[in-house]
């Protein structure tokens, strides 16, 4: 038995059934055919863009949109009542620009083909699910996966906790651990996109939590759960003039396809029963607590855009302003 063979997630085979998602056969055909040259064609005029948008909007079926939104709500309710099962597969120390952190890799019964991450600043709790050995795993292999107390490196930053240490995390003031539930955003987190505030929120969460102690959950929910490819299509639709809600619906998706029962399960696995949640989304608070309230949110910590605080490092962008306006007026985010 090798460590590399312990777990490899299977590739996801799911795809959207919308008009905008070609089948594998049609995609193969389009790749093998001769592409239509566009280099010498003029850019779409304002009138042509408007006509394209009107044609797309005319195809929207309100009944179908409601059906998709209702289905997403049913999944959220299911996870609200019954969070998925999670398992921590590895745990390791990582030195970062914000200090030492411990990284945890998780898989979930809700989406077995994906892996989700958690990293802890000012602590190194042993995940409950990591305590169980895998089939055929030796004690030494178990340790290499991360099941050990303290640290394996003598020169590593000491994980000694102050008298305020709580649930294995030194929260400096003795309060509940700070937590940021962050949905993956390649464009914001990696490219530094100014179309959203995701990258800024992740940077601020790292800065705040590394100083005060807590956890960042990095959930693979790109594009509010629709995936990167669909999100890129949504960007093109937004460039035609619709907001993020309508763009998702035009593609056959819910306005927000995410669920947060996964976050509940990971926090419980890390031994956290009370948290202070960094969020502007009230749905995250109720969703994480769930019907059984195995994790309680004792405080909401607002994530106010840095530009709104007149800080020079903030994102000053008209696109971001429109994005935040949609969050506030269409999705109920608390940004006042």
From TrEMBL:
<dbReference type="InterPro" id="IPR032677">
    <property type="entry name" value="GTP_cyclohydro_II"/>
</dbReference>
<comment type="pathway">
    <text>Cofactor biosynthesis; riboflavin biosynthesis.</text>
</comment>
<dbReference type="GO" id="GO:0009231">
    <property type="term" value="P:riboflavin biosynthetic process"/>
</dbReference>
<keyword id="KW-0686">Riboflavin biosynthesis</keyword>
<dbReference type="GO" id="GO:0003935">
    <property type="term" value="F:GTP cyclohydrolase II activity"/>
</dbReference>
<protein>
    <recommendedName>
        <fullName>GTP cyclohydrolase II</fullName>
        <ecNumber>3.5.4.25</ecNumber>
    </recommendedName>
</protein>
<feature type="region of interest" description="Disordered">
    <location>
        <begin position="1"/>
        <end position="44"/>
    </location>
</feature>
<dbReference type="GO" id="GO:0005525">
    <property type="term" value="F:GTP binding"/>
</dbReference>
<keyword id="KW-0547">Nucleotide-binding</keyword>
<keyword id="KW-0342">GTP-binding</keyword>
<dbReference type="InterPro" id="IPR000926">
    <property type="entry name" value="RibA"/>
</dbReference>
<comment type="similarity">
    <text>Belongs to the GTP cyclohydrolase II family.</text>
</comment>
<dbReference type="Pfam" id="PF00925">
    <property type="entry name" value="GTP_cyclohydro2"/>
</dbReference>
<feature type="compositionally biased region" description="Low complexity">
    <location>
        <begin position="9"/>
        <end position="35"/>
    </location>
</feature>
<dbReference type="InterPro" id="IPR036144">
    <property type="entry name" value="RibA-like_sf"/>
</dbReference>
<feature type="domain" description="GTP cyclohydrolase II">
    <location>
        <begin position="176"/>
        <end position="301"/>
    </location>
</feature>
<keyword id="KW-0378">Hydrolase</keyword>
């Amino acid at each position: 038995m090798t460590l590399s063979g312990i777990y490899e997630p299977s590739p996801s085979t799911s795809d959207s059934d919308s008009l905008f998602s070609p089948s594998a056969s049609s995609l193969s055909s389009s790749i093998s055919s001769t592409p239509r040259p566009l280099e010498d064609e003029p850019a779409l005029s304002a009138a042509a863009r408007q006509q394209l948008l009107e044609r797309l909007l005319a195809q929207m079926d309100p009944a179908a949109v409601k059906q998709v939104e209702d289905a997403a709500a049913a999944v959220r309710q299911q996870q609200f009542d019954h969070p998925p099962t999670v398992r921590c597969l590895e745990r390791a120390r990582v030195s970062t620009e914000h200090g030492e952190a411990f990284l945890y890799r998780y898989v979930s019964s809700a989406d077995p083909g994906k892996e989700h991450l958690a990293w802890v600043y000012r602590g190194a709790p042993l995940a409950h699910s990591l305590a169980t050995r895998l089939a055929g795993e030796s004690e030494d292999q178990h340790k290499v996966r991360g099941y050990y107390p303290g640290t394996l490196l003598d020169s590593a930053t000491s994980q000694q906790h102050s008298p305020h240490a709580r649930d294995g995390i030194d929260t400096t003031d003795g309060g509940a651990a700070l937590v940021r539930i962050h949905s993956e955003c390649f464009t914001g987190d990696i490219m530094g996109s100014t179309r959203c505030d995701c990258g800024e929120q992740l940077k601020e969460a790292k800065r705040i939590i590394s100083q005060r102690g807590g956890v960042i959950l990095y959930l693979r929910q790109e594009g509010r759960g629709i995936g990167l490819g669909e999100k890129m299509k949504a960007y093109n639709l937004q460039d035609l003039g619709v907001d993020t809600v309508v763009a998702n619906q035009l593609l056959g998706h819910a306005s927000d396809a995410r669920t947060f029962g996964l976050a509940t399960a990971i926090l419980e696995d890390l031994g956290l029963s009370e948290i202070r949640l960094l969020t502007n989304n009230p749905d995250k608070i109720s969703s994480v607590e769930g019907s059984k309230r195995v994790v309680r949110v004792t405080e909401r910590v607002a994530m106010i855009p840095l530009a709104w605080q007149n800080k020079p490092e903030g994102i000053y962008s008209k696109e971001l302003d429109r994005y935040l306006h949609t969050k506030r007026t269409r999705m109920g985010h608390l940004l006042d």
